[in-house]
Amino acid sequence: MPWQETSPVDQRERFIQDHLLDLYTMVELCARYGVSRKTGYKWLDRFDEAGRQGLGDRSRAPHRCPHRITSEVAAVICAARRQHPSWGPAKLLAWLRPRHAALDWPAVSTAGDLLARRGLVKKRRLRRHYQHPGVVLPTTTQPNDLWTADFKGHFRTRDGIYCYPLTIADQHTRYLLACHGLLSTKGHGVRPVFDRLFREYGLPRAIRTDNGVPFATTGIHGLSQLNVWWLRLGIQHQRILPAQPQQNGAHERMHKTLKGDAIRPPHSTLVTQQRAFNAFRRLYNDERPHEALQDRPPATLYRPSPRAYSGALPPVEYPGHFLVKRVTNAGTIRFGKRLLFIANALKQHPVGLEAVDDGIWSIHFCHVLLSRVDERDYIIRA
């Protein structure tokens, strides 16, 4: 007798027929067909619902796939990545959601997988991140509490001219106030940039910089002509510790973005390079989502300072018991019978001397204690 092939559906139909004949108990019937009682009852329920058609195999694929991206969404994500190649999937989605609110956006990891499959992600060397134990992070409560300023190194444009990008940002909102390509780091080129910012945005409470030119010098209290001007305007100058750029970490991170988006490769001339800086600043402030701001662009949070700047220096006032001396063009003051060198940066500015002990005087400029001097040896001590 030849073998007769049977399909799974035929076996399940025979299982149903035997059950209807009531020849076996459910336990015996399931053992006879080699299935569990749960499976047996499942086939009975499907037969009651759809008859013989309900006994066929059903797809085990999920009814919906939350990770699936439609072709329209995939095209929009990839186009945004090509437009902003330095932005990761989280920043791209934060930028796209308000612009295409009707689309169903995937998870960040799913968007990242899509970019990797399309070859739009470059492999980067992983770096270890260390938190320096001595880092004192700046704390702010509102815009203009603290501005940060620095130079993004220097490079040559394609016509051979050196460019020194000066960047100034508001620490609280990350708003990039200025990104200006200068011909050097000397103070005579930097001061006009700050003068324009003060007129446009008002005066900040403090400015944080490193210890390089023109922000500081090796003289007394690191005074330079630039930070003397700030002190006269009532602006506190904060300097990070030498060789500790992480104390200005948010500004340094912005420099990394600036380098990738506007400096590499350099432009043909200083004029075209400045146009690239201007375009970067507009994008950075008005469109680019910032993780520290809950994916909002800085321009949505920044407001000008209520401290207006007229261009005039306010007078320096000291308490009545201070001895006031004006610094000469040689950077000195006459103290007793001697000339004491204070700082070249203080030329024609008044300093205040206060007697703090027998023969000991403290030297002040505005609200800053510069040093102390002893009448017995006329040596200035920090």
Q: Concise description?
A:
The chain has 382 residues and is an alpha+beta fold. The protein is 32% helix and 17% strand.
Give the SSE layout:
Layout: H1 8-21, H2 26-33, H3 37-50, H4 71-83, H5 89-96, H6 108-117, E1 147-151, E2 155-156, E3 162-170, E4 176-182, H7 187-201, E5 206-209, H8 225-232, E6 236-239, H9 249-263, H10 270-286, E7 323-326, E8 332-335, E9 338-341, E10 350-357, E11 360-365, E12 368-374, E13 380-381
Parallel strand pairs: 1-5, 5-6
Antiparallel strand pairs: 1-3, 2-3, 3-4, 7-10, 8-9, 10-11, 11-12, 12-13
Helix pairs in contact: 1-2, 4-5, 9-10
Describe what this molecule looks like in 3D.
- The chain is an alpha+beta fold and 382 residues long.
- The protein folds into 4 domains: 8-55; 71-117; 147-300, Ribonuclease H-like superfamily/Ribonuclease H (Nucleotidyltransferase, domain 5, 2-Layer Sandwich); 323-381, no CATH class.
- The protein has 10 helices and 13 strands.
- It has helices at residues 8-21, 26-33, 37-50, 71-83, 89-96, 108-117, 187-201, 225-232, 249-263, 270-286; strands at residues 147-151, 155-156, 162-170, 176-182, 206-209, 236-239, 323-326, 332-335, 338-341, 350-357, 360-365, 368-374, 380-381.
- Strands 1, 2, 3, 4, 5 and 6 form a 6-stranded mixed β-sheet that branches. A 5-stranded antiparallel β-sheet has the order 7-10-11-12-13, with no helix packed on it.
- A hairpin with a 2-residue loop joins strand 10 (350-357) and strand 11 (360-365).
- The chain is elongated.
- The N and C termini lie far apart (113 Å).
